[in-house]
Sequence to fold (269 residues):
Amino acid sequence: MRIVSWNINSVRLRAPLVEKLVAEISPDVICLQETKCPNDSFPEKIMHKLGYPHIAKNGVKGYHGVATLSRVPIVESHIVDYCKKGDGRHIETIFDTASGPLSVHNFYVPAGGDEPDPEINEKFAHKMAFLAQMTKIFKAQAKQKTKLQSVILGDFNIAPGEHDVWSSKALKNTVSHTPIEIEKLAALQATLDWDDVARRFVPPEEKLYSWWSYRARDWAASNRGRRLDHIWVTPKLTDKVKDYQILTDGRGWERPSDHAPLWIDLDVG
DNA sequence: ATGGTGGGACACCCA
Fold:
């Protein structure tokens, strides 16, 4: 099962790029973030035509919004309204596999504004509270962690490692790479011993990015990226992950998102 | 130290 995570930055504007994604890597499940689209105007027919008859979505007008598209049936879907703001930042889909149920949590974590201080910046406070609630919810599943087949993925808006950013020194006080965010992300990761798939396929000392700002003359030449997007799996799935890749080419498509799609191949029968 | 470029909705928010 090939599972993609992609912050598409408007699903209506970039529906043609989903077609390109499908042509290039043919995913079974596509998890989108920043759909910026209410549920009733989601381009369902286009996605059906591309081979994704099963769609679970949590969209609101204008901002954020997530959706999960699938070739195979979605057995259940659940939404948690994190921080009770009515945002579209989470949707869980559950699939039947030969080795049991598989849960895929699709997240769009708040970006957090510019100032990394929750006292003066409401957006940063929201980001901290959102991460705390995620941690609480997954901690509650810790007793079953050896049995769970779960994937958590999406735009976490945090690049934790030294080589997940172009310059750890330059960005140490920049939201997405501050010590407090890195600490909160580590606490979330510890809840179920989530495995950061990327760093088993790409050595930690190698630079790895999933996002490049629009505000560069030439994103590829300057290459000042950050790894804000993640795919983590529970320990039971670790050995079933057969491949991982960031489709960097996607950042260079016509009228691109500022995030590249990334994917895993999961051998779940 | 600053400002650069893109979304969506409707004059400015968000990334």
User: Anything to note?
Assistant: Chain A has one domain: 2-266. The mean pLDDT of chain A is 97. Residues 9-10, 13, 34, 36-37, 61-64, 111, 113, 123, 157, 213-217, 255, 257-258 of chain A lie near DNA strand B (CB under 10 Å from a C1'). The longest strand of chain A covers residues 100-108.
